[in-house]
């Protein structure tokens, strides 16, 4: 006959530890999207982007000729200021962990830093795509107002421009994030992102031997065809790819290497 022995008085029953599931990349991306609006700087930057887009359309309604008040002419000019401001959002998304001293908590909860970086990159890319939708919406409102107030209000539009706009805004925000990863300091990364490509463009115009390479490395030139509805040639795509390799891929790779190895304190 089998007898059951009761546990001794004061003995601690064995505990069964359930394995902790690591958060999915989708969940981490959602967290990073919330961080973009939770911080004061990120929230005001998003508000500034929205107000700038709307202001461009309003100025066109006031000052542009009636024939120029079209959906195309409302949409395209709104892309440039957004492509300048979005990279700053990418920089703040990356550097906020270090500037606000939350990196220790973040990387303790998610020890694999590359997953956190990937979530941040996905979050800013989604924000960039959302900015294109916002530009389309504001352009549509401007076109409706123009048609109601005597402007042309025409809707003729080459939808390949939407793809171009998506490429422009996503690569712009990734360039900013790349500088943020590389420098890990908000002011330094913002100045570096704004100054270095601009300085290269100026040198390319002033120094004759640099004019040839400038055609391939000056993003203000290589990305310009994306503002047009004309089909891009192979040479134009080649210049875009080469300039992005220099100003986006290389800083991104070097910054990821530095982020993975930097000591968190």
From TrEMBL:
Keyword flag Transmembrane: yes
Alphabetized UniProt keyword annotations: Membrane, Transmembrane, Transmembrane helix
Transmembrane segments: 44-65, 71-95, 116-141, 161-183, 190-207, 237-257
Keyword Transmembrane: yes
Record-given protein name: Uncharacterized protein
Organism: Micromonospora noduli
Taxonomic lineage of the native organism: Bacteria, Bacillati, Actinomycetota, Actinomycetes, Micromonosporales
């Amino acid at each position: 006959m089998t007898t059951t022995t009761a546990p001794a008085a004061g003995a601690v029953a064995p505990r069964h530890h359930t394995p902790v599931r690591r958060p999915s990349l989708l969940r981490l991306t959602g967290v990073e999207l919330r961080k973009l609006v939770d911080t004061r700087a990120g929230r005001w930057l998003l508000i500034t982007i929205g107000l700038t887009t709307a202001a461009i359309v309003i100025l066109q309604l006031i000052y542009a000729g009636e024939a120029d008040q079209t959906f195309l002419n409302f949409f395209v000019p709104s892309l440039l200021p957004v492509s300048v401001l979005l990279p700053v959002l990418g920089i703040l998304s990356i550097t906020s962990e270090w500037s606000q001293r939350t990196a220790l908590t973040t990387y303790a909860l998610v020890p694999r830093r590359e997953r956190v970086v990937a979530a941040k990159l996905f979050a800013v890319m989604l924000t960039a795509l959302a900015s294109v939708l916002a530009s389309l919406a504001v352009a549509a409102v401007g076109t409706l107002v123009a048609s109601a107030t005597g402007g042309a209000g025409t809707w003729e539009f080459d939808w390949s421009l939407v793809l171009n706009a998506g490429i422009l805004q996503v690569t712009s925000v990734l360039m900013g994030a790349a500088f943020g990863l590389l420098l890990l300091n908000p002011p330094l990364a913002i100045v570096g992102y704004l100054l270095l490509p601009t300085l290269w463009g100026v040198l390319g115009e002033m120094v004759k031997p640099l004019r040839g390479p400038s055609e391939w490395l000056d993003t203000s030139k290589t990305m310009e065809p994306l503002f047009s509805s004309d089909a891009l040639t192979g040479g134009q795509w080649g210049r875009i790819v080469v300039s992005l390799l220099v100003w986006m891929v290389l800083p991104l790779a070097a910054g990821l290497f530095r982020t993975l190895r930097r000591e968190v304190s």
